[in-house]
Structure formats: structure tokens, C-alpha cells
């Protein structure tokens, strides 16, 4: 068994967890994603390749254009997040 990881103080329930080769994703009921583990190849979505030993929220878009995530998946060297298209920021007709 590996080490125990403390989760951030969440105000909503966890609805999904995805595990890659050496990283983990967590999705909350309000559409937030947290990642931790090995950051090589940018698989944590944190904008760097640094390892994270504790869950850190992944930011999608700017503060004004918050994106609600409805699904997550992780593979050996990648992470995926599925956005709620009806509520995603954008422009056009």
C-alpha cells in the first residue's frame, strides 16, 4: 500500500476518482477537479511538470469564465476532463 493523502477541505462530495500510472484526479459535485502525483509531461494540468504530493485544484479558464467539469479520466501519461458544454464560456452563434 502507498502513502495516505489528505484531501483538501471540500465543501461538496467527491463524485469521481481517476487513477493514472502515477497520478490521481478527483472530481467534486460542483465541477472542480483536483490532481496530484507525478507531474512529468504535464499530466497534472497544473502548468508545470512538478510533482504534487497533495491534491491541488486544476484551473480551467479564467476566474470570470469558470468551466464546470462533469467527467474525468486518466491514463498512463495523460489526464482528461469533460466540460459541461452548455455552461462553457465561448462566443459565436
What amount of the residues lies in strands? 35-45%
Rg, Å, rounded: 13 Å
Main sheet: which strands, in order across?
1-2-3-4
The gross shape turns out to be globular
Tally of strands: 6
Given as residue ranges, the uncertain stretches (5+ residues, pLDDT < 50) are none
Helix fraction, binned, reads: under 10%
How far is the N terminus from the C terminus? 51 Å
Supply the helix-strand structural class.
mainly beta
Q: What average pLDDT do the residues reach?
A: 85
What's the helix count?
0
How would a crystallographer describe the biggest sheet?
Answer: 4 strands, antiparallel
Write the element-wise H/E pattern from the N-terminal end onward.
Answer: EEEEEE
Fold and architecture overview:
The protein starts with 13 loop residues before the first strand and ends in a 10-residue tail after the last strand. The chain has strands spanning 14-19, 23-28, 33-37, 52-58, 69-74, 79-83. The chain has 93 residues and is mainly beta. Strand 5 and strand 6 (79-83) form a beta hairpin. The protein has a domain at 14-40 and 49-54 and 65-86. The mean pLDDT is 85. The strands form two sheets. The chain has a four-stranded antiparallel sheet, with no helix packed on it. Pfam families: RCC1. InterPro entries: RCC1/BLIP-II, Reg_chr_condens, Signaling_Regulatory_Domain.
Amino acid at each position: 500500500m502507498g502513502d495516505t493523502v489528505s484531501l483538501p477541505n471540500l465543501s461538496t462530495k467527491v463524485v469521481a476518482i481517476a487513477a493514472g500510472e502515477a497520478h490521481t484526479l478527483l472530481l467534486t459535485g460542483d465541477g472542480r477537479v483536483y490532481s496530484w502525483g507525478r507531474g512529468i509531461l504535464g499530466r497534472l494540468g497544473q502548468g508545470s511538470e512538478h510533482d504534487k504530493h497533495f491534491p491541488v485544484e486544476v484551473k480551467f479558464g479564467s476566474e470570470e469564465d469558470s468551466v464546470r467539469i462533469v467527467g474525468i479520466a486518466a491514463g498512463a501519461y495523460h489526464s482528461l476532463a469533460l466540460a459541461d458544454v452548455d455552461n462553457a464560456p465561448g462566443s459565436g452563434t
